[in-house]
Amino acid sequence: MLRAVRHGLKISAEVRQALHEKRGVVALESTVITHGLPQPTNIETAKSLENIVRENGAVPATIGLLNGEVHVGLTFSQIEQIADPSASAVKVSQRDIPFAMAKKLHGGTTVAATMFLANLAGIRVFATGGIGGVHRDAEDSFDISADLIELSRTPVAVVCAGVKSILDVGKTLEFMETHGVGVVVHGKSKSFPGFFVPETDFQAPYNSESLEEIAAIIKHGRSLNMSNGMVIACPIPQEHVAADPTLIENAIQKAVKEAKKQKIVAKEVTPYILQRVNDITKGRSMKSNIALLENNARIGAKLSVLLAGRSEPESESSPVRAKAQVPKRKVEKKPKVVCIGGTNLDFEAHTDYLKHKSNVGVVALPREHQSYIYYLNCTKNETKALLNK
Predict the structure, then answer these.
(1) How many domains does the chain have?
(2) What digits encode the pLDDT tens for the residues 194-225?
(3) Domain assignment of residue 89, given as a range
(4) 99 located within any domain
(5) How confident is the model at residue 283 (pLDDT cuts 50, 70, 90)?
(6) Catalytic residue status for 164
């Protein structure tokens, strides 16, 4: 059963209950279902990710759009619905959400859109494959993923395998540093993972082997009302590495050149290159993609459980937070007051009383409201006379 809640989101009963009980919830994107993987692998992977989250003590919340309605916690039948090619689901980034809603479209949410919607629903952890970043020719194309902008302004922890290696990893890390995005590698080394490969030549600012420590970092950031997100970069397990890094890099270079030649631009670039890399590696890169998705779902679930068990103040920037318990103030009835004397007011009042005075003004209400009566330039006897009227 689905129930509509604030912000126009439809949150599943299971997710609503978990949030209410402050249990671990993990957001999952749906672009991997609609655009990232072929059928039936996409549906099988989506179900596998949800099962892994449950097995590790958390509740999965796959986010997507059906007929223009935003769903947080898609059912299996709904996942199959948006995965169907005949549904013509569109790729929905953060900026596209209102358009998809207005046009009543089916949509798969990107990292940026999923972060945004997860935060609206009150979900603090999001597990995905890899985040978008700065493209390799960004100095000419200015192609920088909206994922990075959303990370700079949305307080959600994103568990991923680093930046997709088809991008410029170094420039992406520099961009995140400039925009205040926290980056922690979950592992022994600070070497930032590159999606298909567990290590790159670039270093993250921090690393930690302890999920408890990472949970503490997130907790302290929220206690300071920091509005930025955090990247928890998890290297792909060595046994699932698709091929030699050189082979992967050569495949990427070839795919990038083909994309330029065919004038493939904007949000169509990444799906095209990933598909071509999979073709060139004869399916090995897709197997790695699925393995890292499952690894990140497992880590994300454990992290969300740790965070759910911690007592922490809600961030003021969070759309979902408990109402403050403000003690009721005892309001005392004010005594009636009459102000007598000269003063300056921002208005001029005229009266039929005391016409012989040259500068007299009277503002008067009925006797039952005499606490709000003001007399200007009246003598003591004149005031008594007025009060008796």
Answers:
(1) 1
(2) 998 899 999 999 999 999 999 999 999 999 99
(3) 9-238+288-307
(4) yes
(5) confident
(6) yes
